[in-house]
Amino acid sequence: MKKKILVAFGTRPEIIKLAPVIQELKKSDLDVISVHTGQHDELAQDMLSLFNISPNFDLKSMEEASDLFELTQFLLPKLKALFLSEKPDIVIVQGDTTSSYLSALAAFYLQIPVYHVEAGLRSFDNQNPFPEELNRKQISAIASIHFTPTSIASKNLIAENIDPKSIFETGNTVIDALYQIKKSKEYSTSKPSVLDEIKNDQTLIVVTSHRRENLGAPLRSILKGLIKILDQDPSRLIVYPAHPNPAVQEIVNSAEFSHERLRLIAPLGYLAFHHLLERADLILTDSGGIQEEAAALGKKILVLRETTERQELIEKNFTKLVGSDTERIVAETESVLNSEQKEIGINPYGDGNAAKKIAEIVRSGL
Predict the structure, then answer these.
(1) 315 part of the active site
(2) The CATH number of 192-337 is which of 3.40.50.2000, 3.10.20.310, 3.40.30.10, 3.40.50.720?
(3) Mean pLDDT in residue range 28-33
(4) Most buried among 77, 177, 234, 276, by the most CB within 10 A?
(5) pLDDT at residue 366 greater than cutoff 80
(6) CATH T-level fold of 3-172+351-364
(7) Residue 312 among the catalytic residues
(8) Per-residue pLDDT tens for 189-218?
(9) Annotated catalytic residue: which of 41, 89, 243, 278?
(10) Can 118 be counted among the known catalytic residues?
């Protein structure tokens, strides 16, 4: 009988990072079951279509849960019933979302081995990012096998007394996904129209900010910084694909932050956004995945957070933490844009073969 591998995901970033793993596992003599918890809905559908993944099960949690309490209450019983019905030999989860944690917890309760992709990331602050830092620590306590993206992540796990024999350093699967989509026919036809407005001699700064710790006053402080950055040099243009969250939209659309060279646009699709990143001279973001992808593209990044679980980017001079402080954001932006240093360094997240390594380890362990 074929061994059954259940891969659980719930958000757009999880799909991006697990798609190469699912594709590699399906090349094997394995029964691969994909489960979408539905924590992201429309955003997730775009990614599923892009990577040609049709989930075997969609739990549609977004329709039923509006906060972490309701998500937990809704998902755990659903996952229990699904796992009991499907009887997987292994459950694979990725990263640090609540969907990943609950999938790992359900598997643990049923004594099903959990394999964790992108294991070992730590900010060492349970409140930042919240709830992701606690989620990933809990998954590490549950998982039987840990696929880490870098040596720093591996060392983090060893420091927590995780058995080194259960840790496999593979690189980050986001690089696999990035290389894959850049070779696709869809990529060549997905250039966003906003790029047509940008002149060759303009300095492009791409901004994203949507994390809950930056909502409210921190986001206002970030936007004040952006206006100051634009006022310092007329050749600069900022493109900010603003998250649809009403708490974000209310602030970014305030007349207080209006500027002729600040382009507030709707969120872009994955392919279109990567065209924007490739053109960028600097990226300001509070997103984890964008930090990784920007590093792969050789771009300088300033992180709009006070902590990061991606310490290798700081060590290798890809990024600095600037938080949401207006003056700090302005000062560090000026430092980067006025620097003569153009070479960033070697991408620390691998060569795009992480998924192959993971699939080989999964197969060899069955």
Answers:
(1) no
(2) 3.40.50.2000
(3) 93
(4) 177
(5) no
(6) Rossmann fold (3.40.50)
(7) no
(8) 899 999 998 999 999 999 999 777 888 899
(9) 243
(10) yes
